[in-house]
Amino acid sequence: MSVVGDRDVFEVSVANPDTVVQFVTLDPSGKDCATGAPYSMTSMQLTLLGSTGSEITSDGSNSGVGPCSALSYTLQPGTYYIQVDKSSGTLAGYLLQVRFPTSGGTETEVNDTLEAANPLTGIRSYVLGDHQVSTDADWYRITIPPGGPSLRAEIIEGDALETCDSNGIDSTLTLYDSAGTRLGDNGDTDRNYCSVIDGTGNSPVDSFAHALAAGTYYLQVRSYQTASTPDNQFNYRMLVTIRYP
After folding, report:
1. Are residues 224 and 138 part of one domain?
2. Which tens digit of pLDDT belongs to each residue from 151-196?
3. Measured in whole angstroms, how far is the alpha carbon of residue 233 from the centre of its chain?
4. Cβ neighbour number for residue 173 with a 10 Å cutoff
5. Rounded CA separation 49/187 (Å)
6. In terms of DSSP bridges, do strands 43-49 and 137-144 run parallel, antiparallel, or are they unpaired?
7. Which domain, by its residues, includes 84?
8. What's 34's domain CATH number?
9. Side-chain half-sphere of 43: how many Cα atoms within 13 Å?
10. Cis ω on the peptide bond leading into residue 245 (within 30° of 0)?
11. Contacts of 160 (CB under 8 A, 6+ apart)
């Protein structure tokens, strides 16, 4: 991608209903999104297109590593296209990762305390959650393996009733250590009001989720506010990715 305004389009086929697909752009290392020489890129964008080329959604907030993009979405069977753009600068090369996270099932209530947290296993998985009560708080327990990996956790749509793109999901994600100490949280930095905690890359947005020590951690999902409004009542999927670095 060495020409400003260059655009690459890739075809993606989905075979099964409710398939969660995770698209990520990175530099050729596959671990970071460097901006030093030979790179002078300032931003990339991913756009998901339907079979006819119509836009479904896009990552206009560069919610990936550095100026790179990341976009996760639930798709039904069919043919889709993922479009990679950059707004300015040059990029000697990039890596587009297309991942299919493993389903961790559906949350089990009551899980509104750390002690009652639902386990979520694997290095790339998701869980379907219900947040139709504005004051609800859902807790999940994850295990970080040895070697200092970093964590990315994000909220996307649970169904078509409320979407990130329509501001129908106003979520907050919080990360806690094994003792229940709050490490940090995030409100609105993914698509519109949806949340993402991202400790990946060499200069992560959320350093508290970077190069974590092995052990047990907890993620809490709640609405940004507790008022009974449509954007504080939603179904969601929480995606968790554990990656080195």
Report:
1. yes
2. 999 999 999 999 999 999 999 999 999 999 999 998 766 788 999 9
3. 20
4. 24
5. 27
6. unpaired
7. 7-99
8. 2.60.120.380
9. 8
10. yes
11. none
